[in-house]
Every structure is written in structure tokens, then in C-alpha cells.
Amino acid sequence: MMQKLKEMKQRWDHSIKAVLRRVSIFRRLNLSFMLLIMTAAIFLTFFSFYKYSAEIRANIDRYSSLLVQNVELKIQDTMQEYEESALTFYDDSKVIRALKENAQLYPFKTEADKNKYEENRYFVESRLYNMRYNQKYIVNVQFVTPREQYYMVEPDGYRRGGCIRNLEEFYKTDIYLIPQEKKGYPVWFDMAEQTNIFYPNEQSIYGYPNIITLGIGVYAPGNREFLGVLLMNVSLNAFSGAMEGYEAYKDGNTFLIGEDGVLMWFNPSLNAPAFPKDDLLFQEMKQDGQGIREKKIDGKKVILAYEQIPNTGVFVAYIAELAVLYKETYRIRNLCILVLLLIVVACFIISYYVTCSISEPVSQLVRVMKKTGDGKWNARYENSGHDEITILGDRFNEMADKTDQLIDQVYLSEIKRQKISISWANARLDALLMQINPHFLYNTLDIIRWEAMYEAEGESAVTRMIEKFSRLCRMGMRTGGNTITLKEGIEHARTYLDVINFRHREKIQLEIDMQADEEAIYIPQFMLQPIMENAVVHAFDDGSCGYRIVIRACITGAELQITVRDNGKGMSREEVDQLTVNMERTDLADENIGLVNVYQRIRLFYGDACGIGITSRLGEGTEIRITLPVRKYSENMEKSKGEEDGIQSFNCR
């Protein structure tokens, strides 16, 4: 068992050391020192902040809960006052007797019954009016029996307060039914339908706004006969003093919440969150009765404390943004982070100087190795100590000396190989350039022969033809480089077509469209003339009537685009494909020799990224697209010898 544990420990030690060895000594020492200091500092900072925040949060929860409880108690006391005021009505035996008599007198049998009914009604309605005395927030008091409604009436008989317009519909509402279910216990209603039930008078368009209604079922003391429902409409302003003494809670808002939303807003603050319109949230509040929870409103985290007022569906709710409540906490956190950063900076400075005393020799050896890796094999490590790194430096210097000798041997072998490769490429290029000259000369002599037959006695045309041909020969003999200006290439093509047109009565038309500086751009020699020759021989079948060649040139980015288009007979898809295959062949084809030659010279000059594209349709002509790099200097792909070693190479000049 001990042996296994020892083996596991050795494997563990080996793995840890292997991981650490992947990091430089400077970083290894620096990071380990920083890690130890920062771990302790971060732990102490954030642990203290966490404990402090938890204490703050507990206090916030406690104070928020106390706030809503105290406000709820004040509102409950206010409601109790109105409930006690209502008690003076239904606890009066004279009122109960009057209500019972009126319920028995209707329908009237005699005039005396009617008079008695009116007397009782006036008595009841007077008592309703007296309930409102010195109660400025009571806007209406009514008593509704299963048959009729009683209003508030002044001593002089003038009616005050409001009324219920549709009594039949009112009998179906909760405001009438629930007080009966409660059997005399007071019930408070905050539903929005109150506005459509209680009106100041029969002519009013709008009902009472911003009210809360107290409903109490009234029963006869003896037989518990139901006499009706006492209704008291109280203005929400009656609860406006519930927040007195809590002005310090200005960071949040306190609400009186009902079934249909906010009934009242205590000490409103526009900077504090509003209560969200969320039916699911209200149902959860009803289920809990009281509590504290966190929510996200409009992307902000808030704390919500709430408590239900007994015998009502109304809640007192306090809501505040946590970021505001934690503002002081965050300030302390930022201060702690600042102190932590200062500690980190101080630790970094100390660890830097301690680590540099160890890592600088290693860094020096690494730099020397990097130089040798870049090809500077004369770099050597300068030993300045007697430690293990010094031994490594000595061994490295020995290795560098031996490697330098091997490089000299390999380098000479590579030079010989490249000389052979360059010679082969030059030979191939020379063959291509020479191949076109006899071919062109043969065609030109053939033209001269036919022209001489046509001009039996006229020497002037032949003379002009010979002059043009001589100009072509002079252009072909141009020296100084393998490339010429675009202007010279166009002039070469134009001169060639002049020679061709000597044998035609109707000349082949040539159109030139240059969108580039033709005197500043260089192209390979003999590039346009072979393409035009292909058009004359293959596309026009040596005819001229109505034929035209268009040459366009433009620069796109770093590329020169040259197109040569004719309106000859064109080619089929198969012929275009076959011609494309022939251009890729390394051995020169017997047909289309000029086009193949131009294509292969472009590839030799500029590489595979450049070349020729062909587009053609039968009866519509052919378009040759040449893609070249933009060159503003003449290039010469010729063989030259080095000053010391006789190496052959391609030079651009």
C-alpha cells in the first residue's frame, strides 16, 4: 500500500513539474509569487465584502418588511375608523326597526302604511347622512335592500351623496353578494368596476374615481333576517398619511396595490421603480399574503416587500432598485478593489526584480538560439557565471559551430541544384520565343506571294507591304528586355493588321480602347500579334468583309486585363475546351501555336496566377482575356552569372 502511494506521489510530482516546465522561468516565478499574494488578498477582500453585503441585505429586508408592516397597520387603523363609523348605523336598534318595518309595509295597503314607510325611510337616510359628518374622505354612504336603495338625506330633505343607477345589475356583483357571505363582517372592495356602479347622481356621465368601498351585510338581531348591505365609498386620500415618519425611505416607492393595479402611490419618486403590471405577480402575492422577493423590472433588479391588509384584497408594497440600495456597498467594494490593485502592483514590482535575477541568463540564451534559428549562426552565448545555465551555453556554442559547418556543405549542394533548374527554364523560354519567328515569317512571305500575283504591274502596294513587314521585323529584333510597353504592343498589333489588310479590298477593322496608361505599363513581347493572327487565319478564314477586331485594356486592382475580341465564326464548346487543354500541354502543339506560345510565356513570366481565358460562341465570335500583373518597368528573363560562384538566375531590371 505504501509503495503504491509513493508511486502515485511520484507520478503526481512528475505531472506537475511537466506542466510548470511549459512556462518560462520568468513567468513561472513571477506568477507563482503573484498567485500566492493575490489569492490571499482577493479572498480577504471579497470575503469581507460578501459578509458586509449579506449584512446590508439582511438589514434591507428587515427595514423593508417593517416599513410595509407599519404602513399596513396605519391603513388598517384608518379602515377600522370607518368600520366603527359604520357600526353606529347597523348597531342602532331604531335603524334596524325602521328597516324591518319598511320591508313589511311594502306594498302599501293603506295611506297610513305609506306615511309610516316614508317616515322610516327619512329616518334611515338621515342616519346615513350623519355617518358622513366630520368625515371628509367619505364620498358616499348608501344602504341597499333586496328591493331598493337608501341615500344620504340632509335634515331639510335635500339628497346628498351618490346612487346606483342599475340596481338589478348591482345585485349580481361581488360588492352586494360577498358581504352577505361574510354574515356581517366588514369587507373592503378595490375593484375597478366601482366607477361603473356608484355615480354622484343619475345624470352624471362618470362614476366616483379613486375610491375604495366598505361593504357590511346587515341582519335583524333576533331571527338573523337579511335586511340589506351598508355601502361606504371612501376616497383613497384617506390613507395618504400612512407614510408619515418614513420620509427616509426615499430610495424606493410605496404603493397601495389592488386587484386591478396601483390604487395609491405614497411619496412618489420618479427615480424609483414603478410597480409592474403583472397579474401573475399579484396572484403570487395573494397566495403568500406577505413576503420579500427579488425581481427584474425593465432590466433592473429590484426588491419587493409586500403585506396584505386583513379582510381585503389590498396590499401595501414597497419597491426599490437594489443598485440604489447597494450604492454605498458598491462604493466600499470599489475601494477594496482599488486597494487590491495597489497590492498587486506592489507585489508585481517586487516579484519582477527577484525573478529577473534568475531569468535574465535564460532569456539571453533564448535570444541567441532565436538568432541562430533565423540563420545568424555566428551568434554565440556569452557565459558570465558558473551555474547550470553556463554549462548549457557552452554546449550550445559547440553545437552552433558544428551546425555552421554542415550548413556550408548543404548550401553548396543546393546552389548546384538551382543552377540546373534555372538553366532548364531559360532554355525552355528561349525555345518558345524562337518558335514564333519562323511561323510568322512563313505567313508573311505567303502574303507577299499572293499580293505579287494580284499586283501584276503595280509595284507601289508591294513596296508598302514590304515596308510594313520590315517594321515588324525591326520590332521583333528589339533588345533590352523580354517586355515592352503596352503602347509598343498595340503598335505591333496595328502594324501586323496593316500588313494583313494589303491583300484585302475591304479592310479588317481594328478598334483600340485603352483605359490604362499605355506608355507606363509593360507587357511581354509578341503577345497581341499571335492572338490577332489566330483570328485572321481561323476566325475570318482569311476573309475581310465586315470583320472587326477590338482590343481593350484596363487596370483592376493590381491586375492588367486585356481582351481581344473578334466577330468571326466562333468556336463550339468542345473546341474551346480542347484549346484550353492544348494550352496546358508542355509540348508545343501544331495548331494554335501562337496562342499556346503566348499562354506558356505568360506562365513562365508571372506564374500560375496569370494566364489566358477564352469565351466563344458559334457565329458570334471569340474573346481572348489576358490577365497580367501591373508592371511599370521592363523585365528581362535572361541568364546571368554571379560575381563569384557562376550561379544562373532570372533578373528583373
TrEMBL record:
Is Lyase one of the keywords? no
Reactions accelerated catalytically:
ATP + protein L-histidine = ADP + protein N-phospho-L-histidine
What membrane topology was assigned to this protein in its record? Multi-pass membrane protein
The protein's matches in InterPro entries, at most eight in alphabetical order, are given as: Bact_2-comp_sensor_kinase (IPR050640), dCache_1 (IPR033479), HAMP_dom (IPR003660), HATPase_C_sf (IPR036890), HATPase_dom (IPR003594), His_kinase_dom (IPR005467), Sig_transdc_His_kin_internal (IPR010559)
User: Into which EC class is this enzyme placed?
Assistant: transferase
Q: Which Gene3D superfamilies match?
A: 6.10.340.10, Histidine kinase-like ATPase, C-terminal domain, PAS domain
Protein's recorded name: histidine kinase
Upper classification of the organism = Bacteria, Bacillati, Bacillota, Clostridia, Lachnospirales
